[in-house]
Fold this sequence. Notes:
Aminopeptidase; globular; homodimer; 2 domains; DNA-binding; 3-stranded antiparallel sheet; alpha+beta
Amino acid sequence: MFKGQIEQIRRFNRVVTLHVGALEDSYLQRGRPLSEARLLHEIRDNTDVRTLRERLKLDSGHISRLLRSLKAQGLVRTTADPSDGRVRRVALTPGGLNERATYEALSDELAMSFLRPLEPHQRDRLVDAMAEVERLLRAGAVEVRLEPPASAAAQWCLEQYFAELSARFEVGFDPSRSNPASPEEMTPPSGFFLVAWLDGAPQGCGALKISDGGSGEVKRMWTAPTARGLGIGRRMLRSLEAMAREAGLTRLRLETNRALNEAQTLYRSEGYQEVAPFNAEPYAHHWFEKKL
Amino acid sequence: MFKGQIEQIRRFNRVVTLHVGALEDSYLQRGRPLSEARLLHEIRDNTDVRTLRERLKLDSGHISRLLRSLKAQGLVRTTADPSDGRVRRVALTPGGLNERATYEALSDELAMSFLRPLEPHQRDRLVDAMAEVERLLRAGAVEVRLEPPASAAAQWCLEQYFAELSARFEVGFDPSRSNPASPEEMTPPSGFFLVAWLDGAPQGCGALKISDGGSGEVKRMWTAPTARGLGIGRRMLRSLEAMAREAGLTRLRLETNRALNEAQTLYRSEGYQEVAPFNAEPYAHHWFEKKL
DNA sequence: AACATTCTCTGACTTTAGTCAGATATTCGC
DNA sequence: GCGAATATCTGACTAAAGTCAGAGAATGTT
């Protein structure tokens, strides 16, 4: 069924690993174990050890030894965190900065080696195609999960959402004047709050508030600006619909402001039909409904 | 200068290694060291050890031990090469075939995992973009080298070239009726023979035959069908021109058959102009010339 | 036939990577 | 203030990867 596509992807994987794998060789040529080089590469100004451990998925003993070795080479310096004496913060010495710059240059050089043999228009096509692959792989890695509305991730999304509404609506936005959706209303069984995750960070949200009579309201649909174009909104909406169906709902409703035209396009393309206003939301210009 | 492009490529590299790197994890989950799994994967019917060593770039001691381990697991069988008692040939047992099929399935599964979360049109775009990246990376890896016309690679290219002409010309092709280009005429200082290489295999050729009066003739321009679209013909032609300039030539000439329209397109786009016939080549319909 | 070369295998290493059970110091929750 | 939890470090490992010198058999060269 996906036979040809799978073959193409596997061909891609082979060719790309061959090319990209060359980076490890060039890193190794600096005469340092790969894990030390990678660690050095991850240390920005004053990173704490625990963050490094999570990012590189290394055993605490392992990372401790690697840091000891980098320290012996005079590349890093560790200090205790001023606010929590248990955690150690790592910073690069001037020599370490230098060394990291060298690794950066090697990465740049690898990228250049892809471009150099090509003609200008081929280069453009390569870079465009790479951007597309990257975008779609990232889109595939997005995960939509149920989250308590009071969680830090949910709160962060809501803050961003309100900030954006206030910037985009002609009249600004004041949550207290808008129809509310309280944390309880977005917590099972009264409703749901979903967060889209990518690389461990929230990228968008969406909520469902269950009303009487087998009907539900879609609220708080938002996608982080850096993650737009990945189809997060659509996935969010479909996830909400799936949960609504599971909860036995037969109709979904939502309202939106005329400034949010990409949202309207999404709703229409997902089968929502414009209906007469069904509430008095002061910021809404359009009301939609979909039978499940 | 290429700043933005380099950044995009590095972003691509990061995202792709993250995704493609998952293959190693899934290979490891079969409880076998990665190098054994990779080796198993490379063994087709009756491969000899030396080929495996070259392909995987492993130390002979290392590969010997890996094979011993695979043999102990009942996955491979080795026999002496019938024609050369020093080399050993390796073949998969039924169990080995089975095991390799399992690894293949894991690779397919990884590819599927890229597609599954995407919508149909996103899938198409991902696969197209991957094809483009693969194509252009491969194109960049093509190497054009001077080769003696009598070498095995050159001879292979010429055979393929003649076979293709005989298939594509309406009247077939008989080298002995065509204007000749002898090995001596394509060997410095009388001329040059270039071969384009990719992954250790010849992919195309082109020759320059130096005539009197600062003039040269381009001959034997051919690209393997599997390598078309990588710009090999263009690179070949430009390489020949560069060598012609170095040899002090001021004019290049060539003739071609009307069946080879992609060749004509190439010549015109590289600045060759059609001129009156300058020789009596019986298979030619168009004659071209370019001032260097 | 003698010698060099090629191919594979063996033994004896070293280096990396990764794991696991505590030891130690600090902070949090009550 | 005290026990639980957290963050890091140390020691003691194992497994995997990779290196190197040389042995042994077959083949090529003169």
